[in-house]
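Margin note: ligand = FE2/S2 (inorganic) cluster.
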Amino acid sequence: MRLHDKHVLMCTGPRCTADGQQAETVFLALGQAIDACPGLRVKRTRSRCFAVCKQGPVMVVYPEGVWYRQVDIDAARRIVDEHLLQGRPVEALIFHRLGQGDVDGETKA
Ligand code: FES
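Resulting structure:
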């Protein structure tokens, strides 16, 4: 396996979008955006359900543990540019943070 600094997981499960089709399209666009930045060392993986289906398409970036919701193609490109390249998570799209909980204050124990 190639060396990577970050791991992006994207749900392409059946409930985030109709049969995961929109999410799959975003996943492919995400790969193109990552590949366009040769300096990035990012592993990208499809996942099935994260059990937060109403907020899909859902993407998670590790090691930060930042959870993004409603990620369309424009959002995926923005996450690549701002978060993966520049190290600034896209606050407007984040709904959960590893170790901190939900950003809307509805963290469940
Ligand atoms: S199908 Fe995507 S989170 Fe459930």
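Residues 11, 13-16, 49-53, 56, 58 surround FE2/S2 (inorganic) cluster (CB under 6 Å).
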